[in-house]
Amino acid sequence: MNLLIFLAVVLGTLVLVRLMSIVQLVSSLAGDDDEAETIKDNKLNALFMLGFMVVGLILVVYMIIRFKPYMLPVAASIHGVETDSLLNWNFLVIGIVFFITQIALFWYVFRYQYRKGERAYYYPHNNTIEFIWTVIPTIVLSVLIITGLSSWNRITSTDDKHGMVVEVYGKQFKWIVRYAGGDNKLGPSNFRKISPVNELGLDSLHQDTEDDVIASELHMPVNTPMQFYFHSSDVIHSAYFPHFRAQMNCVPGMTTNFYFVPTITTAKMREITGNPKFDYVLLCNKVCGNAHFNMNAKIVVETKEEFQRWYKSQKTAFPKSDGKTAEVQQSTVNEKITASK
Amino acid sequence: MELREKLAVEHGDHEHEGEHGHHDHHEQTFWTKYVFSTDHKMISKQFLITAVFMAFLAMAMSMLFRLQLGWPDTKFQFLESVIGKWGKDGKLDPGFYLALVTIHGTIMVFFVLTGGLSGTFSNLLIPLQCGARDMASGFLNMLSYWFFFGSCTVMMVSLFIEAGPASGGWTVYPPLSALPEAIKGSGLGMTLWLASMALFIVSALLGGINYITTVINLRTQGMSMTRLPLTIWAFLITAILGVLSFPVLFAAALLLIFDRSMGTSFYLSDINLNGIALEHSGGSPVLYQHLFWFLGHPEVYIVLLPALGLASEIIATQSRKPIFGYKAMIGSMLVIAFLSFIVWGHHMFITGMNPFLGSVFVFTTLLVAIPSAVKVFNYIATMWKANIVLSPAMLFAIGLVSFFISGGLTGIILGDSALDINLHDTYFVVAHFHIVMGASAIFGMLAGVYHWFPRMFGRMMNKKLGYAHFWLTITSVYGVFFPMHFIGLAGVPRRYYANTAYEGFDSLVNINTMISTFAILGGIAQLLFALNFFYSIFKGKKAPLNPWNSNTLEWTAPIEHLHGNWPGPIPTVHRWPYDYGKPGAEHDFIPQTVPRDQTISSNRNDDDH
Fold first, then answer.
1. Distance (Å, rounded) from C-alpha A69 to C-alpha A106?
2. Which of B71, B165, B358, B605 has its CA 20 to 30 A from that of B471?
3. Within this chain, do residues A99 and A173 fall inside the same structural domain, yes or no?
4. Torsion from C-alpha of B563, B569, B575, B580, nearest 10 degrees
């Protein structure tokens, strides 16, 4: 098999070289580089340039329309709606620039193709026009920066006291979700304590750990501010919540955070997308090893009641001595949820 | 010919300042002439051919992983024949997928677009366009190539080791790249990667200091800085960027070597891998990212500026018109170069670094869009009311501008941190950087090859094949990378072996298949280039002295390569290189060597730029 492939490659190369010499012969017979031939080539290529522009721009518009259904559905978070709007404005601005400049480029190539006996217009510089097309982009870009930064500031200046505290922990190759429970404080973790039965390296004796609840899916009560903390103990992962327009790296040796408010339940999103099997997802978005592509977790956004039902069925980090699970802490969690209304 | 003799008579056979000795008896052996040559023209060809070879290798790798992405459920039996155990049963091994992606990126960014672009064209054009006999140090130049060759060899060797090559992405972030237990490629493969990059950095530095020294010190009589072609400005600025930023990559790599082999904790802390708590403590992976991207960002301008320089030259020559805004072009390159040092954090918005720091980088990043825009406008203005000759080189230069517009605009979106939150590490980023580098810059390189092939090899490449190559390539490249934006907007992460883990991505399979189809088409189209390139070196039509009717000095040196470039004295320069289509002039171009008293009819139209 290998021999055949090798022979095919060798023969193929010889054939191609032969073809090449034929091409070369034809070229020189046809007087490839003399002026008439050059002008013919110019005309043809100029026409192709124009054609490429027209077909290309039509295809761009076509793709935008055709691929729209595959795009992410409406943002399922408060800030996500804002950044989506910002994105659309940005696309509008760059879209206009794209069309104007590409059309100018290809049109000029066609319009000003070589004409024998004519000369180009000797126009080496114009400082006024340089000034104009420096200032206008500066103004436009300044608007884009200012709006972008104002969003960024809003998104990243979170108040730790707000929001239901949840840790999203990434490890090769899965996600572990830890709810801070009634005290809204995560128990401390220590990488030296990590073991198969204690994947997060938690301190079983610490009071903050008592009500921490561990899950393999991320559930969120709708319209509840969520304060996420991210961590990893092996390599860098990235917690990517595309539907919520949220992302943050999980870095060994430091704790990172991100805050957002989910606004659309899974059920509602199933309606919106027309897909009864739709589910939100948490994806790993920083290459972390061979199974990087398979490191995801289901996310569910549900009503507060549904969330409480689910939460009660989850286990705490360490089994309670009195056999009760998260139920004990429910009242405090309830307060948190009511307070956020 | 007449002109040069006239010059020799008028100005005498004097040696210009800085010119090193006359090499009369230069006995050259096969080894010193073809292998360890110190002649910049030979070295530029060595860089080019090595880079072309590496480019085809990296492209073949991309074909393999695009097969996987386009047809995730198909088994390709031939895979096992090509890559052995990594293609068992016709399925690409997921670990090797990451290795392919890593090495593809490393080869393309460093070996092809830095070594191949800067190495080839800086070497070819700096002495010739400045009017120098050779580079300031032929010996360092020779070393620069052989270190480059060495780094390519080591990288290729890493492909064959048992545990596989480096696999952490071309950015090789620790801890993944520091811990072989986390991924197999981080063992010997990563060590070889680091060794290869160390050699490459040495090569780049040797080259860079040579280029800077030659441009500053060895310009011929009359060649003031503002009479230099834009290619030289681009190469000079690029070399300065390289000299200032490559050492930081070296530092990043060195610290990584220490972490991997000597138990230090620059990048590592609080790690528990497979149940074992590692002793490293106090380090931060984010430190690596800062160091890496401190080079990483200037690196992309090291890739881009030479391409832009080549395009400026080709566009002006083939438009038969001066480049519009010569001084603005220089100014914008200087501003881009300066700003390129203070934007690196836009690669790191999602790392967990302080959001305020992120804001600073947003601000500086959007600033760098301004001079880039100015350059695009100047290219377009050059073509306005021009008289354009569409050689294959010109087609590629136009393609460069088109891709630079497309890619540059999406950069504006990614530079906005609020928007980057959802786009970071998705295919939107992959589309962006491929369009600016894998399309725009490579088109610059191809344009350079087509345009200066006669200068390098004394023969012409076949024009018709060049046209076919261009049209197939531009169609394929847009076909591959434009749809990728949509996949990225849909939330698909990069460096994913398959998109099958989340059902929401199922609808995107068709787009992926289309992308892979265009990729394969594009790959095949490059064979046209390879064929044309190698065949024409030996059997191409013999080139005239100045096939493009260009003004710059390299076209005044004889076609038969002379050690020392010009047989007599080095030409003197009397004007800038952009006297194309000057009113009052006899021809539509006036080479830089033509004295003022021979162009009395057109002197009044001098541009005071």
1. 31
2. B71
3. no
4. -50
CATH number of the domain within which A192 lies:
2.60.40.420
Is A67 an interface residue toward B (CB < 8 Å)? yes
DSSP state letters, B127-170: HHHHT-SS-S-HHHHHHHHHHHHHHHHHHHHGGGSTT-S--STT
Q: What is the pLDDT of residues A292-340, one digit of tens each?
A: 999 999 999 999 999 999 999 998 888 766 544 444 344 455 555 555 4
Which residues of chain A make contact with B283, given a CB cutoff of 8 A? 253
Distance CA B238, CA A4 (A): 47
Residue type, B470: F
Percent of chain B with pLDDT over 70: 95
∠ CA(B309), CA(B312), CA(B314), 5° rounding? 110
In terms of pTM, does the model score above 0.90?
yes
Same domain, A147 and A168: no
Q: Would you say residue A328 lies in a domain?
A: no
Closest alpha carbon to B401 in B433, B451, B439, B448: B439
Instruction: Kindly state whether residues A138 and A192 are assigned to the same domain.
Output: no
| Residue A168 sits in the same domain as residue A294 | yes
To test the contact with chain A by mutation, choose from B268, B378, B383, B422 the residue with the greatest count of A C-beta atoms within 10 A, namely B422
Q: What CA–CA distance (Å, rounded) separates B496 from B503? A: 14
Note whether A180 and A280 are same-domain residues: yes
The answer to whether residue A73 is domain-embedded is yes
Chain A contact for B380 (CB, 8 A cutoff)? yes
pLDDT tens by residue, B362-388: 999 989 999 999 999 999 999 999 999
Residue B78 CB neighbours (<10 A):
13
Q: What is the mean pLDDT of chain B?
A: 92
Q: List B residues 588-607 in contact with A (Cβ-Cβ < 8 A).
A: 588, 605, 607
Report which residue type is found at B116: G
Q: Are residues A177 and A258 in the same domain?
A: yes
pLDDT of residue A318: 84
Whether A284 maps to a domain, the answer reads yes
**Whether residues A170 and A314 fall in one domain:** yes
Nearest CA in chain B to A101: B405
Q: Which domain holds residue A301?
A: 164-318
In-domain check, residue A10: no
ipTM score of complex: 0.92
Predicted confidence at residue B33, as pLDDT, reads 79
Half-sphere exposure of A22 (CA within 13 A, CB side): 6
Split into its structural domains, chain A has a count of 2
From the first residue on, what is the mean pLDDT of each consecutive set of 10 residues in chain A (341 residues)?
Answer: 80 84 79 76 95 97 94 96 97 97 97 92 94 96 96 84 89 94 90 91 89 94 95 96 97 95 96 95 96 96 95 86 49 52 43
Determine the Cα–Cα distance for residues B142 and B129; give it in Å rounded to an integer.
20
